[in-house]
Amino acid sequence: MTETLTAPLTDREALPVELVDAAGRAVGACPVAEAHRAPGLLHRAFSVLLFDDEGRVLLQQRAAVKTRFPLLWANTCCGHPAPGEPVDVAAGVRLDEELGLATALTEVGVFRYQATDPATGRVEHEWDHVLVGMLNGERPRLDPAEVATVAWVAPDQLRARMESVPGDYTPWLGDVLRIALVGRAVQ
């Protein structure tokens, strides 16, 4: 069972993101909404994937009110650090805001992707830092403005589901899972 958190009053679309070049170097800033207008501006982001003792991953179904890829299944949480903000700090804050959780996070890789949400026309064009952590028994407290529900899934089952019904998952989840599993293996 999960609890819900009180929704924040911040307009997340107005917050600044850090624009980056093709090598991931900071080159400026703009509001979230501007970075996600077609064709999309390359900017820094992060994706967190939490594991439990059984090796399962915690997925979230994005809230219906999300401006990009609503109601699709994604990694535990994701977001954007403010310009100059350390990625691990921003990821810890978002993990608490979206799910009411706190745990140590380790960056295990980075990748670049671009995807257009056919439902909203908005674009993800991100230099995405992948962070992993462990969660053992803590119960998420969902912010309904961010998360519809959560589920623990074995990575093999997740891969099979993503192959059979890819339209149920965000376009970045496959890369996040791959990088997280490799990163955990070498830790």
TrEMBL record:
Q: Where does Mn(2+) bind?
A: 36, 43, 80, 124, 126
Pathway(s) per entry: Isoprenoid biosynthesis; dimethylallyl diphosphate biosynthesis; dimethylallyl diphosphate from isopentenyl diphosphate: step 1/1
* Cofactor(s) it depends on: Mn(2+); Mg(2+)
Q: How is the cofactor bound?
A: Binds 1 Mn(2+) ion per subunit. Binds 1 Mg(2+) ion per subunit. The magnesium ion binds only when substrate is bound.
Active site positions = 78, 126
Output the Pfam families linked to this UniProt entry.
NUDIX
The protein's Enzyme Commission number:
5.3.3.2
Signal sequence, renumbered to the chain: none
Q: Which GO terms describe its cellular component?
A: cytoplasm
**Where do the annotations place Mg(2+) binding?**
98
Any one Gene Ontology BP term: isopentenyl diphosphate biosynthetic process
Provide this UniProt record's keywords sorted from A to Z: Cytoplasm, Isomerase, Isoprene biosynthesis, Magnesium, Manganese, Metal-binding
Gene Ontology terms for molecular function? isopentenyl-diphosphate delta-isomerase activity; metal ion binding
Q: What is its main location?
A: cytoplasm
Reactions performed catalytically: isopentenyl diphosphate = dimethylallyl diphosphate
Q: What is this protein called?
A: Isopentenyl-diphosphate Delta-isomerase
**Which organism does this record belong to?**
Nocardia puris
**What's the source species' lineage?**
Bacteria, Bacillati, Actinomycetota, Actinomycetes, Mycobacteriales
UniProt gene name: idi
